[in-house]
Amino acid sequence: APTTTDAAPARVPGECEFVPTPDQPAAKPAPVPTITTAETSGTLAATLQTDRGPIPLTLDRAAGPCTVESFVSLVNAGYYGDSPCHRLTTGEQLKVLQCGDPTGNGRGGPGYTINDEPPTNLAPAPEGQGYVIYPRGTLAMAKGNAPDSGGSQFFLVYGDSTLLPDYTVFGTVSEEGLATLDAIAAAGSDESNGPGDGTPLTPVTVQTVTLG
């Protein structure tokens, strides 16, 4: 007999579902994107202007079309202006700076969720068990444990990081941006979340995000 699983049917790339979260209102006013299909090719330049230096990005519509659409919408709404990067990890497995929550407490979102767009082309990690390497220079979405729970928070990978392929990759960080990240990471974190994980000791704020 055919077996049934609880796995959601695979989405067509670029088919988007932005779901309002009334129980988690937006940390800052932001419109819920209304499009249902996003462009699935092409790139777009964006720059995180931080008080520690610029972090230029290349947004990749092929990798995360719906995520890019949401990010651009939030940028245009001014959502990311004056928001802190609240989390820095410096562990062996995880080397990322996480930003995108205007509240700075790690729980804020835009008032809606984005469907997952899991990467399919990342190299397997040596430890196996489905883990992959998110390489240095990757821009990816943060999310909760539940499927399709991403919102506005994203992370910047400054050193190869081992993760399950659950986190949508939607762009890359330039060499100039990586130099900024390296300087922030070098100071470490306060380890308030555990060894190698906490608030950056070099505070960093995204002042504005520009496109193009």
Overview of this structure, please?
This protein has 212 residues and is mainly beta. The protein is built from two helices and 14 strands, in the order E-E-E-H-E-E-E-E-E-E-E-E-E-H-E-E.
Keyword list:
212 residues; mainly beta; 10-stranded antiparallel sheet; two-stranded antiparallel sheet; 11% helix; globular
Task: Reconstruct the topology from this structure.
Elements (H helix, E strand, L loop, with lengths): L17 E3 L22 E8 L2 E8 L4 H12 L6 E2 L2 E3 L5 E5 L12 E3 L17 E3 L3 E4 L12 E6 L1 E3 L5 E5 L1 H12 L10 E2 L6 E7 L1
Antiparallel strand pairs: 1-7, 2-3, 2-14, 3-12, 4-14, 5-6, 5-13, 6-10, 8-11, 9-10, 9-12
The gist of it:
The protein is mainly beta. It has helices at residues 65-76, 175-186, and strands at 18-20, 43-50, 53-60, 83-84, 87-89, 95-99, 112-114, 132-134, 138-141, 154-159, 161-163, 169-173, 197-198, 205-211. The strands form three sheets. A ten-stranded antiparallel β-sheet has the order 4-14-2-3-12-9-10-6-5-13.
